[in-house]
Design brief:
7 helices
Length: 153
């Protein structure tokens, strides 16, 4: 029972609202910050830089369009945009190179069970093994033979 004065919503109405929200088209903002404007035009700006235009030239184009932006600010925003697109490309590239997941097959058992871990991966030699009687000349980091001390000076 609902408490007195407590408002409730039917599940059907909430489902309808969720459907309507999902159908809404993307709404672009009518005003952008300078950073957003440079991010949006970053590909065009980078292409102009490759064609030989300088940051000063590009800042002048922005100024002629009514956006007064300094050369240093334009450089900084463009550098941020480059990093942002590079990190997005890196994640999509790593996602493309991930191994494909195969479904597990619980019915099939392996023909031979793997051996004990110690048998599969032999223990590496430690410092004591390298300096033992079996291998007296070998020292870590390949420093060579030890110096001999002369006692008759």
């Amino acid at each position: 029972m609902a408490a007195k004065g407590k408002r409730t919503v039917s599940r059907k109405a909430l489902d309808q609202i969720a459907e309507n929200l999902a159908k809404l088209p993307e709404k672009k903002s009518s005003e952008l910050s300078y950073r957003e404007a440079v991010f949006e035009q970053s590909e065009t700006l980078l292409a102009a830089l490759k064609r030989g235009y300088s940051y000063e030239d590009l800042a002048a184009v922005f100024s002629n369009g009514g956006i007064k932006i300094s050369t240093s600010t334009l450089k900084r925003y463009l550098r941020e945009a480059r990093k942002n697109t590079a990190s997005q490309n890196k994640t999509t590239a790593t996602e493309r190179h991930l191994p494909k997941q195969t479904p597990a097959q619980p019915d099939i058992e392996p023909a031979e069970k793997p051996a004990d871990t110690a048998e599969r991966f032999p223990k590496k030699f430690g410092k004591s093994r390298l300096q033992s009687e079996e291998n007296p000349d070998r020292y870590p980091s390949n420093y060579g033979r030890p110096l001999e001390m002369k006692t008759d000076l």
